[in-house]
Amino acid sequence: MSFEPILLAPEEEIEEIYPYRRVWRTSWIEISSLFVAVGLIFVLNLLGVLPALLDGGLYKTGFALLPFMLWLVVSYRAERRALQPRSNLGGMLLLGALV
């Protein structure tokens, strides 16, 4: 039994500051963006508009670089804005590309 005074209002809990970026939020943004891009390509292909737009071979490189560009825009930028950004992200990117 405690003889400390009982407060009428509970103490406010201090919210812990998370120093790193949240992974799941940015992962869902990337995955959703990829689904939207693939769905758009699929619909344009069904409509017959896509072959007319894709006369050159540059589109294949664009499709291959789409996941990297999404990662760069969403995850890397969010990581750099975090209180304690993780180090060696470039090395992890290179390792992931090699795998």
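(the above was protein one; protein two follows)
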Amino acid sequence: MAEVIRMPKLSDTMEEGTLVEWHKKIGDKVSAGELLAEIESDKATMEFESPEDGTILYFGVEAGETIPVEAVLTIIGEKGEDYKALLEAAKQEAPAPVAKESAPVEVSASASVPPPATVESIPTPSGNGRILASPLAKRLAKEAGVDISRIKGTGDEGRIVKKDVEQFVASGGAVEAIALPAIVGEESFEEVNLSQMRKTIARRLAESKFNAPHFYLTMEIDMANAIDARQRMNEVSPVKISFNDMIIKSAAAALRNHPKVNASFLGDRIRYDHH
């Protein structure tokens, strides 16, 4: 008999989850304990194993979509089994679906202005030195004897997923060159929806601003070389160069190398400016 598999509650605070990737297709056979999907909660991305033996008859969510806990995730049963009545009953009991997250949308101030070159999403360690990769991708890379830090991630925030490892191994380990973004004079940007984990982090950070005491740090910078450089530049420059000009120039150069810092938090999404 067919069984309805619902979105699991992977943490005490989880209210909804995002289906990162299916590892099976409709019509595939699956055994209990076999890897079925990767699910992102408000804390981490976890591998989800099938609780049942059988054939996958129905998917209630596509990769990249978000649904509430206890909503219909999939239905597993015998091949060719009629599951429609079971699905209708399950949907009536399930929570209301969460709006599907849209793909990143690029908005330009002028349609005639070509979009700037983008920086290739080569995975870099996070602040704690951890490479962003799914558990399955890490396991496949280890089995193939591949340094996972050399693999370009195509998942959310440059995350390395299964297909990235497979493509890297198939290509013999070729690494794409990093292209610096072009200098842009026109205003343009792209907006990316926040993952469940980042939504939770943002909410907790906002709460801590009001509930926790803060200690602010300052630092001193030795500007002797900057003072000397400004004096020499102003001896030949047709316009007067100020210290503000030098700081703005330095910040602009840094943002070209670190474009994700040039961003704004908009509640449920992040806006990355190209200018």
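Reviewer note on protein two: The first strand starts at residue 3 and ends at 6.
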